[in-house]
Amino acid sequence: MSYCGSASEVFRSPLAKLRKTPGVGEVIARAVLHPEVLREAEQIQQRCEKLGIEQLFYTDKRYPARLKALYDSPAMLYFQGTADLNTARTIGIVGTRQATDYGRRITEEIIQAVQPYQPLIISGLAYGIDIAAHRASLQTHLPTIGVMASGVDIVYPYVHKKTAQEMLVLGGLLTENRPGIKPDARLFPARNRIIAGLSDAIVVVEAATKGGALITAEYANNYHREVFAVPGHLNQTFSQGCNKLIRENKAQIYTKPEDLIEALNWDQPAAKTASIDKSPLALEFTEEESQIMSLFRQQPEWHIDELSWQTQIHLGKLASLLLNLEFKGILRTLPGKKYQLY
User: What is the pTM of this model?
Assistant: First the structure.
């Protein structure tokens, strides 16, 4: 789009021009110009409109800012529901499909403890810990998102259909797969990266030494999200994964809700913002962007960790905000996770 000028111009461009576009090449260029491409896109759009599915392209304002900053963010998302995908606070809760009573109880306790902070609870709608997290969220009137390895219109497992319908009223269903796509083994790891990317923190409640929960934790570490693991009995299969994460310093130990709340700075009042210039440029900033810009007016260069501390904005969301300010031509990235005014 940047090379051609707009989305529509991409499809009007000759093959020779598309072929020269950085990162495209012969195969993609021919695929873009195939006559079936736009017809198929129109069919997908018509189906989404019929089913009430919102299509969120990477450049849309409603597209989750937390995902936009990631190197492997989906180009398109499909969403059904009422949740704010850019809400201030989010938590991902994941774990084994074969949850114990202990795991379900811990999941419920976490959600009850964070209820006063009104976070968005994110999980994968699977058996075990996932569905326990969604149901506990609904019971405590917290919005909850189910990230799916299928189209929004195909709930898997089907026995969770009733819960999924309730989530449409308080939360929603999200996927990168177009309507009609059935769940497939290769789609689940990709789904897990979206759970990790959307979350300010991931809590692994119960997990074996291999499985989707550990994949989600790995993505979360790569994305610089907070990761917590609930320790368990040494002889329990579904505590081994959590204990391994803690032992390898890939997760903080979760012992009480305060561990999570303190790590995310939810117990701290937001830093006061200095007075903002009333110039036309400043008026285009969101409240959080204005908060960041007030610091750059005090000094022209900041490390991302210092910005997070001063603004009390979590690193995941802050990275997205800084990326948007780069797109606006206001900031530039320096080596060592530093940012500078242009």
Answer: 0.77
